[in-house]
Amino acid sequence: xxxxxxxxxxxxxxxxxxxxxxxxxxxxxxxxxxxxxxxxxxxxxxxxxxxxxxxxxxxxxxxxxxxxxxxxxxxxxxxxxxxxxxxxxxxxxxxxxxxxxxxxxxxxxxxxxxxxxxxxxxxxxxxxxxxxxxxxxxxxxxxxxxxxxxxxxxxxxxxxxxxxxxxxxxxxxxxxxxxxxxxxxxxxxxxxxxxxxxxxxxxxxxxxxxxxxxxxxxxxxxxxxxxxxxxxxxxxxxxxxxxxxxxxxxxxxxxxxxxxxxxxxxxxxxxxxxxxxxxxxxxxxxxxxxxxxxxxxxxxxxxxxxxxxxxxxxxxxxxxxxxxxxxxxxxxxxxxxxxxxxxxxxxxxxxxxxxxxxxxxxxxxxxxxxxxxxxxxxxxxxxxxxxxxxxxxxxxxxxxxxxxxxxxxxxxxxxxxxxxxxxxxxxxxxxxxxxxxxxxxxxxxxxxxxxxxxxxxxxxxxxxxxxxxxxxxxxxxxxxxxxxxxxx
Length: 488
Prior knowledge:
This protein is of the alpha/beta class. The protein has helices at residues 10-24, 36-43, 47-60, 87-90, 103-114, 118-121, 142-154, 170-184, 199-210, 225-233, 279-292, 315-318, 347-361, 366-377, 380-407, 434-443, 473-487, and strands at residues 63-65, 72-74, 128-129, 193-196, 216-221, 237-244, 247-248, 262-265, 295-299, 324-329, 341-344, 411-414, 421-426, 446-447, 462-467. 42% of the residues lie in helices and 13% in strands.
């Protein structure tokens, strides 16, 4: 008697059961299969269900009807080496064949295990989750964004439904080029901008275009683990240079070491320490990369948020040799699910980056690009940023005040003048047991994230990175109060 597996629609269960019997050899080639009427009666299903299952088997070539024969039979031309399924063997760990991974595939798996992005990808379920990397979702002008998308959808032409250019829509690239020149001092053109599915894809494209296995990449210590993963996945050798109060320490000119192909930096708001690289250090870095023939990847992930003083010109704005690749994203402005970012490349790299983008996914979604171009061109972008900066400054102030109230001199706050997170170095005996504290904090409803995740070699001091943008001021205060109670 046939046994159904209970998964999915009935006709698919009947189809899979008969298919497996044919593939396992339980039903020999040329053997007659039960009629749809007999099958429906045997399994107590409707006749239409049985007929649908037979039609699927017939369409895929498992059964056939012969002239003059009554009913259907198992196809006689089933190859002798057809895949065999045996339910008893499927539970055996040695049954499933495991394809051999390529060198890149193996590296990707190992890197994912060593550099977990749990802090970034895990859904927020705690009421006081200080996870970093998230914007203030409640502040996003959602209704306005929906109207802009709907307007573009209504006006969409037939050509807008086709594949778009891999480098992105010209409208968005034009407004981005103008905005970068005005707000970040980056002298770029629309032709030099490539629209990507978030900054992580930009890093992946740059790695594949510029790096060979064994090439050296200089990164910050601590650093953004997504950049580390992108470069290490293609086989690059990563060297970390410590971050001080001025940003990444630039190696001495003429130092006896292999010159890097790429230097990865976050100069406007170092991730995760929050240090802002001053002009002197920026010029020093540009002189050094020029002397060794390297390129700089500038990740300007949240430079739009600055609360004290005027934002510094982007590093790319100081570049006169075409060595700086500038990356920007809208994940911290609107929402991460938008998956919309951009990279401004030197003219000499444009063709290669566009070709790599075309090879990766043939292009980014069109309607979102067009809606974003309207969002920027019609002034909504700057208007929203002004409001968001005011609100985030209040959240920042609430966090700093709560830390001062509940931790006092046991907490050293860093990087509070910009961005959507800050780093807190903790003092005291309890600070040494951060893993135990994290578990207890979660039981108290507080999401806590250690800074050691962003180091190649964990620091001697204990620190936590606190993202505050999605939380209300009262939630920030309550979360820190609970956290302090855990540490007591």
